[in-house]
Structures are given as C-alpha cells and as structure tokens.
Amino acid sequence: MTALSRFTATLRDPKASADDKRLALRFIVHIIGDLHQPLHDGAGTDRGG
Description:
Oligomer: single chain
Number of helices: 2
Order of helices and strands: HH
Structural class: mainly alpha
Largest sheet: none
C-alpha cells in the first residue's frame, strides 16, 4: 500500500479521529505538491550538484 492510498483510506474512514484525518490531509497535500515540484525530492546519491 502506498502512502497516498493509506492517507486516502484514513480520510474515508468514519472511525478515524479528526487529528488523524488532519494529518492525512496534510501529507496528501505535501505528496501532491512534490509531484508538481520534483526537484524537492532528491536522489540518495545526489551530492547537491
């Protein structure tokens, strides 16, 4: 299960707490933002150059 599908499932879960849903939404927004700005995700072998 990917992080995006896990957080989406949390938002859909009626038993999830408001705090869990809030955190899931924040991570979904962050993940989608990274998809639109791929330079925010570097490779592990990248030495910053």
